[in-house]
Amino acid sequence: MFSMDSKCGSSVEYFSLITFSDVPEVYSTVNDVTCHFTLAPNMSPESTDYVAIFPVGWKSVDEYVCSQPVTVSADSDSSSSCMHSVTFSGI
User: Residues with Cβ < 8 Å from 23, sequence gap 6 or more?
Assistant: First the structure.
């Protein structure tokens, strides 16, 4: 789970602090899939955070098809929103 400092507000606001963009509706198993996301200001990933792709109809977080850890460079400015990405390699 992404950590945030006390300036971020209530837990209801927390869920809108990670925004995914350009999310395709269908994924190819042959091509790489790049997932773009933006973290709100004052958020930083923890070492156990990851982005995963789930099948339609998933019911448990254990049902992911593939996952990649979230890495953000140490020099990222946590006081402003910044675009990040994770790439899933094709088979």
Answer: 35
